[in-house]
Design a protein that fits this description.
Elements: E1 6-8, H1 13-26, H2 37-48, E2 53-57, H3 59-62, E3 67-70, E4 75-79, H4 80-87, H5 91-106, E5 112-114, H6 127-139, H7 142-145, H8 151-158, H9 162-171
Parallel strand pairs: 2-4
Antiparallel strand pairs: 1-5, 3-4
Helix pairs in contact: 1-6, 4-5, 5-6, 8-9
Length: 180
């Protein structure tokens, strides 16, 4: 999904952390550091959603979109280079996939509404903010991140980019040193 004419029901970071935790629990992954994104897309989500479809699309078909989600159709698409990055453990691509899983779980049409006019959207109603926050919670559960001492440890343990690790530790009010 991209920024557009829709807004979501308002939510909180705590609620998104809870949804991510519930998904991990359903999949038996609550204590796993390196969330197995590919296995979840290919096997986990189909076990939860009867009609779930995961597709890898060629770059020209996706254009600038790294991923697309159609929640009402239970379908996620990743651009082929992004999927390749996920399989190689690239943090940014893993985050893209987690973001799209967030859209799947959070943004069916019954939870979205059309925005009126050019009014700025409140952060907690922005589907992109929600999917980003969910992605961080899914890949880096608070309870596990709090055991880390360094940003680099967060990056290594959870398979995320430096930016994602920094953002998540800041969100959790954790002060961590960086080791380059």
């Amino acid at each position: 999904m991209s920024h557009g004419p829709f807004q979501a029901q308002p939510t909180t970071k705590a609620a998104l952390e809870n949804v991510a935790g519930q998904l991990r629990q359903v999949l038996g992954l609550e204590k796993v550091d390196f969330f197995p994104v590919v296995k979840v897309l290919e096997f986990g989500l189909p076990s939860i959603f009867e009609n779930f479809v995961f597709r890898v699309k060629e770059g020209p078909a996706m254009g600038d979109q790294h991923g697309l989600t159609f929640p009402d159709d239970s379908e996620i698409w990743l651009r082929d280079d992004v999927y390749e990055g996920v399989t190689q453990g690239k943090g940014r691509d893993r985050f893209t996939a987690a973001h799209e899983i967030g859209h799947l779980l959070l943004h069916s049409q019954r939870f979205l509404s059309r925005r009126m006019g050019d009014q700025p959207i409140r952060t907690n109603c922005d589907p992109e903010w929600q999917a980003n926050c969910f992605g961080g919670c899914l890949l880096m559960p608070a309870i596990l991140v709090k055991t880390c001492k360094y940003i680099d440890e967060v990056m290594d343990r959870f398979g995320v980019s430096r930016d994602a690790a920094r953002h998540r530790t800041k969100q959790l009010n954790l002060s961590m040193q960086e080791v380059f």
